[in-house]
Amino acid sequence: MMLLSMENRKSGINKTAQDLISKAVHKLYGLDKLTISVDVPENGSFGDYSTNISFVIAKTLDRIPFEIATEVAHELSSENPKIEFEGTLYSIFEKIEPHAPGFVNFTLSDKFLFHNTMDINLLNETYGSSDFGKGRKVIVEYSQPNTNKPQHIGHARNNFIGSSLSKILAFCGYDVVKTNYVGDIGIHICKSMLMYIKHGNDGLPDKKSDHFVGDFYTMYEKEFEKNPGIEKEAQDLLRRWESGDKEVRAVWEKMNSWVYEGWKKTYSDQKVEFDVWEHESEKIDVGKEIALLSLEKGLAEKDETGAIIARLEKYGLPDKVLLRSDGTSVYSTKELQLAKDSFEKYKFDKRLYVVDVRQSDYFKQLFKIIELLGFDWSDRLVHIAYGMVSLPQGKMSSRTGLVVNADDVLEDLTSLEEEEIRNSIKMPKIVRETAEKVALAAFKYGMLKVDTKQDVIFNYEHVTKFEGNTGPYLLYTYARARSVLEKGGFEIEGGKFKYESIPKEFSMHLKERALASVLVHFPEYVLKSAGEYAPNQIANYAYEIAQNFNSFYGELPILDASPESLKKFRLYLTHATMVVLKQSLSLLGIEVVEKM
């Protein structure tokens, strides 16, 4: 008999099913080292879990999948694992049965669902956490803005993905270091500086300071259209900066300080934080070591101008300049040095780069160079490529002026939500605070619910709705559950409510069972999200919770349920929903609201 401990359950019940299937297939057919998939069926009538293992091994055995499924289901049923609650053993699965044309379906027992609901109430915010990543360090590099303008809506997606991944990985026990590598020097920075020197009259910001700097970058773009020759002036500024010109450095420091001050509020409003800040200007003289090592290893060679170029064409990648002919480093060389320094400092198990999909080839080059240089940690580098953000009216462009700043988006969303919330909350201060939380939920969830690799068309009207797959809908669901508990005077009572207090004839209603079984899946979605670096897994799981709770709430009485033991169970189920929904949202960087 297999006894499932609380520690085993941290990996999710699907892992238990995988282990059972592995043993059964070995016992029946002598097969090992199989890839065993256990999924949650879209149709609840097919059980809580399902496996296609019969199809996987049918060809090897030269058997009909349904026959195999029947044999496997019979073997699994005889080994149905138990779980101990308060000295009593209960079966985890009510039934394990074959289903045509060859699936094996698992249905969780009511008793297991009941006790799992009680455990959620007792474990509270630790439910779903694990030590899966214990002893492993992960560097998550995200945001990486340039100090020539405020952050736009695309930066916000980067911020939200990186921040959420950091939370999810930490929840799984990883030691996470959140880092921001800022592009604070380069020709693009000098463009803003040039316009300020020409037209700024040495003035101080008269608006949010990063927006003030950004206006000069926009000014440059417009002036460049009329006079392309100004690019030489910007290049001259960069050369003067590199040579240590005090006057240019003073302007650079002043304008950068304004940008950092503006970003401070942007990050604060978005609830985004970092452990480490690194700056491109600090790496301006590094990289020569990497370039010379590339020469020594035969990976690179000098061209006729004296530039050092990594030859990558034979690996199906474009060649990459590592050192200019004048001996100065390029951005990628600094990035190579940064990766090397980072590994020497942290000995990381993974380093994640959250950077948009347009840089995919660049990172392939970068990682290939590190591999060819003989660094055995090259396979620990991962590019988290995310799709582009556009607006309903088209792609963003600095040249056309179709760029939406992240600050403006959040303020617009707050104004829209404030109008809606004012109808239900009358205290002005509470209205504003609630609107800010709901707006940020709309913003973050609107980005994070989409598969990271896919593009996002950000539509204000869609993300602010209080129904459907939106952040406000999830917050409303949480507030609704909380209101029910307040009216019912709910208290945990140290977990004294036991299954035995339910009448013997009790069996879960279909709506109760659907909600309780969804809550079981939380640890599985957390590990899946961490393993695939996919916050959208958690986001859409949270939506599934909300749908099931609102269906349960709409069809069954909670406060008026009878007998009293049934009412009590439904209150516990409501509280468990709150716990898991709150934790899911927290992993997305979204704060719940108590009333709406």
Automatic annotation (TrEMBL):
Compartments in which it is found: Cytoplasm
Biological processes annotated in GO: arginyl-tRNA aminoacylation
EC number: 6.1.1.19
Source superkingdom: Bacteria
Entry keyword set: Aminoacyl-tRNA synthetase, ATP-binding, Cytoplasm, Ligase, Nucleotide-binding, Protein biosynthesis
InterPro entries cross-referenced by the UniProt entry: Arg-tRNA-ligase, Arg-tRNA-synth_N, Arg-tRNA-synth_N_sf, ArgRS_core, DALR_anticod-bd, Rossmann-like_a/b/a_fold, tRNAsynth_Ia_anticodon-bd
Gene Ontology MF terms in the entry: arginine-tRNA ligase activity; ATP binding
Span of domain DALR anticodon binding: 474-596
Pfam family, one: Arg_tRNA_synt_N
Signal peptide residues on this chain, from the entry's feature table: none
PANTHER family xref list: ARGININE--TRNA LIGASE, CYTOPLASMIC, ARGINYL-TRNA SYNTHETASE
Subunit structure, as described in the record: Monomer.
NCBIfam families, per database record: argS
UniProt family annotation: Belongs to the class-I aminoacyl-tRNA synthetase family.
Protein name in UniProt: Arginine--tRNA ligase
Species of origin: candidate division WWE3 bacterium GW2011_GWC2_41_23
